Amino acid sequence: MSINVKNLTINFSDGFIPVKNINFRINSKEIFCLIGESGSGKTLTGMGIMGMIDEIGGQIEGSVEFYGKNILKISEKEICKIRGNQIAMVFQDALAALNPLYKINFQLKEVLELHTNLDRISIKKRIKKMISLVKLDGCENVLEKYPHELSGGERQRVVIAMSLLCNPKLIIADEPTTALDVTVQSEILKLFLEIRDKLETSILFITHDLGVVAEIGDRVAVMYDGEILEEKKVFEFFDNPETQYSKKLLSSRI
Ligand SMILES: Nc1ncnc2c1ncn2[C@@H]1O[C@H](COP(=O)(O)OP(=O)(O)OP(=O)(O)O)[C@@H](O)[C@H]1O
Ligand SMILES: [Mg+2]
What we know:
Elements: E1 3-12, E2 19-26, E3 31-36, H1 42-49, E4 58-66, E5 69-70, H2 76-82, E6 87-90, H3 94-97, H4 104-115, H5 120-133, H6 152-164, E7 170-174, H7 182-199, E8 202-207, H8 210-216, E9 219-224, E10 227-233, H9 234-239, H10 244-251
Parallel strand pairs: 3-8, 3-9, 6-7, 7-8
Antiparallel strand pairs: 1-2, 1-4, 4-5, 9-10
Bound molecules: adenosine-5'-triphosphate and magnesium ion.
Magnesium ion binds near residues 42, 43 and 174.
């Protein structure tokens, strides 16, 4: 798997261009971090890859090659097959990603019923496997609980399990640990590393936290005002930042 983002530009009809001609590639089993301050265009880039810019009234140009196919140019039906299946997304706010009215089991089952042809027994097995992978098997009766009956960390694990159900090749994780306390954050980061190793998934990890980049990233791209200023292997970035902005970012790190 590789995903190749070429000359990606996102604009709105009022002339606002939040993402300006960016290029990057995410290789197989790689954790690629996109870092930048609030409003730099990280989330819109993730949404662009998922083909969701039309929905919010924007326009997208350039290409996103996934398995050699430009997924910005395929039909709505085809992109729906990829979204949630081969490319999954995990957001910052796990509570908003879950339906408060349904138990966890129902919500996980629904994803598999919608996206796969698995029978009831296989669905049950798959859910059990993913719950164990995200280390929620210690949480008693987790599947019979409603989202509000779980802690923030547990909810984020449920959302991660949900994103893994259909065996995605790429996970776009948009600040998935920002709302969590430091200890839980560190556990969730470890979980992403494990997922990459065990399931061989590539991850686009969006964050504004250099500590997170240092902990899990293979490569990092620094985004500022809709542009990518520099892109490097993580250790090279910390050793030898190129741009003034990156140097400032690193020196202001506490
Ligand atoms: N639906 C939208 N319509 C118009 N402008 C938008 C929309 N969504 C985001 N923007 C604007 O585009 C810019 C980039 O937004 P984006 O959400 O990608 O930033 P971000 O880097 O993810 O920031 P944060 O770290 O705060 O999440 C911002 O100026 C934002 O106000
Ligand atoms: Mg964002």
